[in-house]
């Protein structure tokens, strides 16, 4: 469960450390956070999510996940050959994916056919749909039309 901390507590701590002076921004009303507002700080419950998201951030890992998503069950030798990766690297990544519940395998003779779990397939599908949708939104807008998010960042 996330921990809640008041902004004024954070500002007080920063002032003690002389790490950051936000009082000017607060006085100019340019700072998007009220001092009495509480923010939620994620706790250890998201560690599993962090480990899964890491798998999508490395090119070779993402390529393996996408290959399995688009093609279904494949043996290590095919994954390795198609992606131009060493079999030992592919095997290592698949072992990591298995420990995180992203892949499972079925033994066929001397081969293991790896496939995404239903949960992983849904994650990959959601990721692809979201990225494509956002990319299309951004391509349709001119720079002056870009949206801003809740903290004022241009999207």
Protein model, in words:
Helix content is 53%, strand content 14%. It has 7 helices and 5 strands; from the N terminus they run βααβααβααββα. The strands form 2 sheets. Strands 3-5-4 form a 3-stranded antiparallel sheet. Helix 5 packs across helix 6. The longest helix is centred in the last third of the chain and has 23 residues. The model has no long low-confidence stretch (mean pLDDT 82).
Descriptive key words:
single chain; 155 residues; alpha+beta; three-stranded antiparallel β-sheet; 14% strand
Q: Compute the number of strand runs.
A: 5
- What would the average pLDDT be, to the nearest integer? 82
Distance between the termini: 29 Å
Largest sheet geometry: 3 strands, antiparallel
Basic shape: elongated
Quickly give the structural class: alpha+beta
Number of helices: 7
**Strands in their spatial order, largest beta sheet:** 3-5-4
Radius of gyration over C-alpha positions, nearest whole angstrom: 22 Å
Helix content: 40-55%
Q: What is the H-and-E element order?
A: EHHEHHEHHEEH
Given as residue ranges, the uncertain stretches (5+ residues, pLDDT < 50) are none
Strand content: 5-15%
């Amino acid at each position: 469960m996330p921990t809640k901390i008041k902004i004024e507590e954070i500002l007080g701590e920063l002032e003690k450390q002389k790490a950051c002076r936000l009082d000017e921004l607060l006085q100019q009303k340019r700072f998007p956070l009220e001092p009495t507002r509480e923010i939620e700080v994620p706790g250890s419950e998201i560690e599993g999510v962090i480990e899964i998201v890491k798998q999508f951030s490395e090119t070779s890992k993402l390529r393996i996940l996408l290959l399995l998503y688009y093609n279904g069950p494949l043996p290590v030798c095919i994954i390795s050959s198609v992606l131009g990766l060493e079999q030992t690297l592919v095997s290592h990544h698949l072992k990591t994916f298995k420990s995180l519940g992203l892949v499972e395998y079925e033994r066929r003779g001397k081969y293991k056919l790896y496939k995404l779990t239903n949960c992983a397939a849904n994650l990959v599908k959601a990721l692809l749909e979201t990225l494509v949708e956002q990319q299309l939104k951004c391509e349709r807008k001119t720079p002056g039309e870009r949206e801003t998010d809740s903290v004022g960042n241009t999207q």
